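Incident review: delayed structure delivery

Summary: a single-chain prediction request sat in the queue longer than the usual turnaround. Root cause was a stuck worker, restarted by the on-call engineer. No data loss occurred. The affected request and its eventual output are reproduced below so the record is complete for anyone auditing the incident later.

Affected input:
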Amino acid sequence: METEQYDALTYKQTVSYHEKLRERVFRNTEKDFGLGISLSEISFKDANEANSWKKLWPKPEKAATWDWVRLYSEYRSRGGSRRFDMAIRRGGTLHGLCYGMMERNRLVLRLHALERSPVNNELAGKVLDITLYAADLYATINDAREIWLCDPVSPAHTRLYQSKGYSPVTNWRDDVTHLMLRLK
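Output delivered after worker restart:
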């Protein structure tokens, strides 16, 4: 959708546009990946379940610090229409979650929280690929120019994201603030 058309939408139309867009991205990603996955927006139940993952990680440094229930509330209210939220399931089991947001100008999709289940995860090693694929589709359809993976959990996560083609962006202290992928 052209910027002028998008800017002319009412809030209700914008909400509907992004709901349909997320749904289209989910169905295309499910079809393209196969694997029997099911993608949906994150529910309160999903957020609550993901909060329990912190104590299940064998190595605490791998655990994300997100409070998924708080994020659920924030993204449903403040994030509103432009949010990108995705729950990944297979066989009814929750395997991964992601929260992100398109910037108002729709030039950047920022992914703020991304996590996979630490135990009994048949999709371990695939959750990130599924998420990045869906995010790329969502960003591309919105004519975004970049995708950012914000606040990586650890240096190991930074290296993993770099292996997927993302470039680190640092602050004045040389801390990685996010990783960026320029879209074509």
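Verification: The beta strands are 37-40, 83-90, 93-102, 108-116, 146-150, 167-170, 176-182.
Action items: add queue-age alerting; document worker restart procedure.
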